[in-house]
Design goal:
With about 475 residues, this protein is of the alpha+beta class. The protein has 9 helices and 31 strands. Strand 9 and strand 10 form a beta hairpin. The longest helix has about 35 residues. It is globular, with a radius of gyration of 26 Å. The N terminus is likely disordered.
Length: about 475
């Protein structure tokens, strides 16, 4: 029989255990809430909207050869079009889809899916614009002797570099700068049809080269939105910076050019083909380049060639995926996606079946429908306190934030082969032009077999390093914001 004292001690013990359990539950709740805060990003809504004032980056480029990158439609661009001529947001997204369709068609042919639909280091500043069927980024380089400055789109999904040339024998679209005139350059030369360089055009453009009556090599390239360039294949002096000059650079001198190139003078190909700028400058830069796309359309970024003199441990590398071998594209092996710190339940086969590429010209990241459905569901759950609004073209998860000064957005993370994790905050997660319609910047492919594309919204502000010699691609913290 228990004594009064032992009963009292038993009561104290029971009470203490209840108290400790309640503390444990409270501690657990605080930990969960703390994790939620850690895996989200609270920003002012106004910061997500485009600015009309240019704010150039002040980051040091560690003395490498670097070109300034800007968004074509932004206030930092020297070639931005009048509002009446500029593409609307809906048109940009439609052009983006045209590019995606073209990429899927090219990858399908490479993989043999015939039943699928056709559809020392140097840095150059990068600017973003609308071209080749999507919103892309532009840099300014020098061509010819004397040097003529030209603003060109740079594209990791293309190989050949070309610019419009006088006399525009057939047609030239309207560009902001004076069209390049090879007759006024002392260093321009046409390439012969019989040269090895001419025969390389088929792999770089997908088309057999032509030949004039005077045996001049003729190139032709068409893009996903039916834009095209046809002209003479030549060689010329290319100037990236005063210390980075390349003689006999092979490029296309366009005589018949049409399409959505947004006032730029042409395009720089940064793909993997022997005719790309990366390969033609390999002796100096070792087939290494990197870029930091502007975080917003009102800021600037950089395009840099060569390895850094002081490699950063903060840059994490993942091997190029084998799925893109034999193509111009750079492949990634995606292994998972997280929302608010929680890995989504997506079978590994979903990503391995589709494969993934990274592309500077695709605006919105495309995912297999199975993966996108899981991402959308988790994102909407985390954003349940904010009102959904009408979709914007291919973007089906949009919010009306007119009643909010700040918004808390869950971070989205991508895991790639080799233990590489890329964390995306609000600026790399949302696509916004007006406060009434701020959208999740991801979309689904038409089927789970089409290649996924890691687009440029998700790359903004990050240091992205392409090491072709090492067979790898790296991601680092913001280097231009």
């Amino acid at each position: 029989m228990a004594t009064p004292i032992s009963s009292f001690l038993g009561f104290l013990l029971f009470s203490t255990l209840v108290f400790l359990c309640s503390l444990k539950k409270l501690e657990g709740r605080e930990t969960i809430e703390g994790n939620q805060l850690y895996h989200s990003h609270t920003v002012k809504v106004i910061s997500l909207l485009p600015s009309t004032i240019c704010s150039p980056s002040t980051k040091d480029t560690d003395k490498r050869t670097s070109l300034t990158v800007v968004h074509k439609h932004g206030p930092c661009s020297q070639i931005k079009q009048d509002k009446a001529k500029a593409s609307t947001l809906d048109e940009i997204l439609q052009e983006d889809q045209s590019r995606v369709n073209s990429i899927h068609s090219r990858m399908s042919k490479k993989l043999g899916f015939d039943d699928l639909r056709e559809s020392e280091a140097s840095t150059i500043p990068a600017k973003s614009g609308s071209t080749v069927g999507s919103g892309n980024y532009v840099v300014t380089v020098g061509l010819g002797t004397p040097k003529k400055d030209l603003t060109l789109i740079f594209d990791t999904g293309s190989d050949i570099t070309w610019t419009q040339c006088k006399p525009c024998a057939k047609s030239c679209y309207q560009q902001k700068e004076t069209i390049f005139d090879p007759s006024q350059s002392s260093t321009y030369k046409n390439i012969s049809c019989r040269s090895t360089s001419c025969s390389q055009l088929q792999s770089a453009t997908g088309n057999k080269p032509g030949c004039t009556s005077s045996s001049t090599c003729v190139y032709g390239i068409q893009y996903g939105d039916s834009s095209f360039s046809v002209g003479f294949f030549g060689k010329e002096k290319l100037t990236l910076t005063s210390n980075d000059v390349f003689s006999n650079f092979l490029f296309g001198c366009g005589q018949n050019n049409q399409g959505l190139f947004g006032g730029s003078a042409g395009l720089i190909g940064l793909g993997r083909d022997p005719l790309s700028l990366v390969q033609q400058t390999a002796a100096k830069y070792g087939r290494v380049f990197s870029y930091c796309l502007p975080l917003t359309s009102s800021s600037t970024g950089s395009l840099t060639f060569g390895k850094s003199a002081r490699p950063s441990r903060a840059i994490k590398f993942t091997p190029f995926s084998k799925v893109t071998e034999g193509t111009s594209f750079y492949g990634l092996d995606t292994v998972g996606i997280s929302v608010a710190g929680r890995k989504l339940s997506i079978a590994a086969s979903v990503f391995s079946n589709s494969g993934t590429i990274i592309d500077s010209g695709t605006v919105i990241t495309r995912l297999p429908p199975t993966a996108y459905s899981a991402l959308k569901t988790a994102f909407r759950q985390a954003m349940k306190n904010y009102p959904l609004t009408t979709p914007l073209s291919l973007l089906d998860t949009c919010y009306d934030l007119t009643q909010y000064e700040t918004v808390t957005v869950p971070k989205i993370g991508f895991s790639f082969n080799g233990g590489v994790y890329v964390d995306l905050d609000a600026s790399r997660t949302l696509f916004a032009t007006k406060i009434e319609q701020i959208c999740l910047a991801f979309a689904a492919n038409s089927d789970d077999d089409s290649v996924a594309i890691f687009g440029n919204v998700q790359q903004r502000g990050l240091e992205v390093v392409y090491d072709l010699a090492g067979g790898k691609i790296g991601f680092g913290p913001p280097s231009c914001s």
